[in-house]
Specification:
6 strands, Glycosyltransferase, 419 residues, 2 domains, mainly alpha, two-stranded antiparallel ribbon, binds beta-D-glucopyranose
Length: 419
């Protein structure tokens, strides 16, 4: 760190990048350590502003844990999310009905992006009106149900699933804050991809025809209205690229990895948003100096693996591996303090040092690592249909157990004496 502070990223370059399985195990361990008794995942344990559960971060973490064979942990998250949504049922219904009746969205009273770990809504100045998490949650649950044949869980949570799905149907193409919690006036392409994923999942889980129809409309809108100059654009108000556009291909499958506009988008993300081998969120980002994000670099690797470019995917994995510190933490971002020291310092004075260990970073590294164990054939673009063999199967095959219970990676780490 240039300013002499050690926020955990200082040891980031200490690893040699050669021990992929060890990093995968560290990430499973960290994800599990972010889950509290209620089933919620703290976005980060060590960064006070992130001691909440975001549907977005939590849903991707549950997805990664499913791929790690951690069925119970993922199930506990989905039960928690179902209860959180059921707990605010009147306001979800009111928002849905208001919108269906032609009324305007009222940002301050829309279902929140993040909850306390007890499932309560925190009323503070945070821009909470973000639609993507509800889509991502439905998608993640549908993945869980598909992976584990867990239909009864979907039945158990059906009231909350209906609420979330009807809400997405009502606000489908509306402006809201983006996945970085900014730009509340625009319609964001990656948010629409999450809405598409959620509506498709809702159609399948609940048999809702309206959801299937709306999913088709959202996909059509993305393809016909959210492109600029041969590639996808960040939003209705911003024609530049944002790394979250990768979500269109993986996991939501709005565009296949080989789709020309998608390939052009990924190339521009790789060229325009790269910093020392890692991927930044968007060009003008200055949050904690606007460094490179391990989770987005892993996402690019996931995309490259799906596009059949394994060397690029491995390079992304290797870059992320160099971001783990010597205690196994994986930060939200690296390098912001040197890229824009003033912006970095101004965020530090506001909120303290940035998140040195982020559950979502671990989740996306694990997904990439898992993907690299047995790449999915290039033609597959539907995540559910193409559900790759769980990495846990590899770990389990060696361990000789039918499912890797929670202790498996923990025991492995214990045996190896930790990081
Ligand atoms: C990011 C969000 C994320 C949250 C918690 C914010 O800085 O912009 O995407 O959900 O942190 O990790």
């Amino acid at each position: 760190m240039t300013d002499g502070m050690d926020d955990g990223t200082a040891g980031a370059r200490a690893n040699d990048g050669g021990g992929e399985e060890r990093f995968a195990e560290l990430s499973v361990k960290s994800m599990l350590s972010h889950q509290v008794a209620t089933g919620a995942f703290l976005a980060s344990r060590d960064f006070a502003p992130y001691r909440f559960c975001w549907l977005r971060d939590g849903s991707f973490t549950a997805f990664a844990l499913d791929r790690a064979g951690q069925r119970e942990a993922a199930e506990r998250f989905h039960r928690w999310a179902g209860a959180a949504v059921a707990g605010i049922a009147p306001s979800v219904r009111a928002a849905t009905e208001r919108r269906l009746g032609g009324g305007a969205n009222v940002a301050s009273s829309m279902p929140p992006a993040r909850y306390t770990v007890e499932g309560a809504v925190e009323t503070d100045g945070w821009p909470n009106f973000q639609v993507d998490g509800y889509g991502t949650w439905l998608w993640s649950l549908s993945q869980h149900v598909g992976h584990w044949d867990a239909g009864p869980l979907a039945d158990e949570l059906s009231e909350s699933l209906e609420l979330a799905c009807a809400y997405l149907e009502a606000v489908d193409l509306d402006p809201c804050f983006d996945c970085w919690e900014e730009n509340g006036e625009a319609v964001h392409t990656s948010t629409l991809a999450c809405v598409y994923g959620g509506l498709s999942a809702g159609a399948e889980l609940l048999g809702r025809e309206t959801a299937a129809r709306k999913a088709g409309e959202v996909a059509e809108h993305i393809v016909s209205r959210m492109r600029r100059g041969g590639r996808f654009a960040k939003s209705s108000a911003d024609g530049s690229v944002d790394a979250s556009l990768l979500w269109l291909a993986v996991p939501f499958g709005v565009a296949g990895p080989d789709d020309a506009a998608m390939a052009a988008t990924a190339s521009e993300i790789e060229e325009g948003l790269q910093m020392d081998g890692g991927i930044r969120r968007y060009a003008a980002d200055c949050y904690y100096g606007g460094g490179a994000w391990p989770l987005l670099t892993a996402w690019l690797g996931w995309y490259r693996a799906r596009a059949g470019d394994l060397p690029s995917a491995r390079r992304c994995a290797s870059w992320v591996e160099h971001c783990y510190d010597t205690t196994g933490r994986l930060p939200e971002q690296v390098g912001g303090e040197t890229r824009d020291p003033d912006a970095y310092r101004s965020w530090v004075s506001r909120w303290g040092r940035p998140a040195a260990d982020l559950a979502w970073s671990h989740a996306m590294y694990f997904v990439l690592w898992d993907e690299l164990q047995r790449p999915v054939p290039k033609a597959s673009t539907n995540e559910r249909a193409a559900a790759p063999p769980l990495a846990a199967m590899h770990l389990t095959a060696r361990a000789g157990a039918p499912h890797p219970p929670k202790q498996t990676s923990q025991e492995t780490l214990d045996q190896r004496g930790g990081p």
